[in-house]
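Q: Got a minute? One more chain.
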Amino acid sequence: MSRSLACFFCFCAASLLLAFALSGETPPTASASPLACPDDPTIPAGLTSTVDRADFCVYYDPHDTTPADAEHAADHVQEYWTRYVTDFGFNIPLHADKLEVWLEVIPGDCNGSTGSGNNRIRAYTGCYDTPESIQKVLGHELFHRIQYTYHAGEVTWFKEGTARGIEDQTFDNIDNWATALVAVSSSFNKQVNNF
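A: Always. Here it is, folded:
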């Protein structure tokens, strides 16, 4: 992604978030005390192991995902959380108690999802096939959680575009990633032509 295009995305992201910040909505606050990982009945059956962090839990299938890969995912989420909230000054990502991060077993598929009406981020284990993909997908989905603290109903192309743009501004190893435009996880690049 060219530097000017990345700057444009960041300008758009900053403009959107500033507009919603001025709307007077109260951002969520961090948990006052550490909580255990929730026992959520909607968690897929195979996700029986967890990595517990202060504000989120990573759920994974120990038959498909190694504890090291799950810790690696938790480290990425924590790094993004810190960059977004502490370094960039965004609101704390939308969550109740602890945010759930599901590493779902979908071999060969690298993507993720989240929604303003749930308390989770989903990332597919096929993202481990390319080293930067799991980092990129988790950061992208976590940024959506931040967007939801400002406005949950923004148009898709803008929400996806600013989440894609912030990826390049957050960590140098995925800034100008050579295969970003053709990566399986870069759905924005495929979706933008539909708008």
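A: The first helix runs from residue 3 to 21.
Q: Perfect, thanks.
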